[in-house]
Design goal:
The chain has 485 residues and is an alpha+beta fold. It has 17 helices and 23 strands.
Amino acid sequence: MIAFFYRKLYFVFILCTFSFSVARAQETGVKFTSSDKEMENAFIWAKGMALHYKGNANDPVGPWYESALPPRDAFCMRDVSHQSIGAEILGLSRENHNMFTLFASNVSASKNWCSYWEINKFGVPAPEDYRNDKEFWYNLPANFDVLNATWRLYLWTGDSSYISDPAFVRFQEKSVKEYVDSWVLSADSLLKRPAHPNAPIPFNEEDSFHRCRGLPSYSEGVPNLKTGADLVAALYRGLLTYSAILTEKGQKKEAALYAQKAEQYRQRLEADWWDKKDERYYTYYSNDNKFGKDEGEAFLLWFDALKDDVRVKKTIDHISSKTWNMETTSYLPFLFYKNGYWDKARDYILYLSDPSTQRREYPEVSFGVIEGVVQGLMGITPDARTNTISTIYKTNSTGSAAINNLAVIHTIIDITHLNKHESVLRNTGKRSLKWKAMFYGNYKMSYSNKKPVPVKKETDAQGRKISFVETTVQPGKAVSVKVKD
C-alpha cells in the first residue's frame, strides 16, 4: 500500500508540472502539424510527456531518460528498446547511445551473458531487479530486443558505432552464440529446455531473483513457464538482425548462416505454436508440457515474425478485440499502421493520449505515440545503408500533415503530405539524401518539382499497390513529388 501511495503521489507531481513541460517542449525540436487536430494534440501531449522523462545528463549514469516503472529513476532493456525510435525523433540521441552502450557493455559470463535488466540514474543495477550476479531478475527476450533496437537506430541515424563499436560487436556475438547456448535456446530445444537452466544453488522457488533469473518471456504473470512465443519471435528477429549486420559489413557467408538459423525459429513458431481450432497463436508453453494463451501476441508483430497473411490478420483482429495493459497498448499504433490498420492505429493514439486513460503517464506510452505518428501515419523510414528516406502517408482522410525539424541520417528534414498523392521534402541539413516518395495507388504519371519523371511500382506487405518516385534532395533544397492518373 505504501508503494502504491508513493506511485500515485509521483503521478500527481507529473500532472502538476506537466503544463509547463508541454509549453517548453513545443518551442524547440521536432514538430507535427495536421488538419486532423486530434492527432496534432495527441502529438503535442506525447512530446511534452516524453521530454518530461529526460534525465539529468550530469547524473552518475550519464545522459538517460526514464524507461522503467516510475519513480525508480531507471531504464530497463525492454522499455528502452521500445522507446528508442521515439526518443531519437525527439532528439534524445545522446541518451540512446549512452543507455544502449551500458546494456551492451555489461553482459558477462558471471551472469550467463545477461546484462543488467535495469540500470538507475546512479549508474548501478537497480536494486529492485538485482542483488548480485547469481540472483537477479531478467527476461530472456531482452538481448535480442536490444540487438534489434540498435540496428534500427543505425538505420535511422547512420551512426555506425551501433554495429561496429567493440562493445556492441561483443554484445552481438555473445547474444547469438554463448547466450543462446547457456540458456538452452536452440530452435530444437525450446519445448524441451529445463525450467531454470542457470538457477542459483541452492534454488529457492519463492525468491523471484532465483525463479526469474532468465524468465523465458516478457509475460511475467504466467507461472511454471518453459518458453514464451515472444521469446521464439525475439530469437528469430535477433538472429535475422545479426545477419543483416554481417551483410552490411560484407560478411555474406556468415550472414547467410545466421539468416538460415533465424528461419528455423520462424518455422518452429508456425509449426508448433498455432492453434488451428481457435485460429490463434499460443503464447506460452509450460513445464507441464502444455500450451496456453495469455498476453504476448503483440510481440509476434513487434519482432515481425509472422509471414502468413491470414494468421497476421487473425492475430491483429484478436489483439484489437481486447483491452491490454498500457505497456502492450503503447506498441499498437506503430504496429497497426505497419500492418495496414490505419484507422485502428489512429484510435489507439487517441486512446493513449486521452486524459481519462489510466496509466497514460507510463513512459512507453508517450514514446509509442511519437513513433506511431512519425513512422506510422507519416510513413517515414530512414535507411542508412542506402542514405534513403522513404515516406508514405497512411491515412484514409483527405487532409494534410507535416513533420518539421526531424533529424535522420546526419541531416534534418521537413516532410509535408499535402494529400494522399502529393508530398514535399525539404532538406534543411548539410548532407544530401535520397528520397523515395511513395503513394498508395496505381498511378500512371508522376512529377518532381512539376517536371515529369518516371513512376515506379511495387506492393506493400498487405498487397496494396504503391507508386513511387526516387530522387535526390540536396542540402537547403526542397523537392515536391506528385502522382496522377
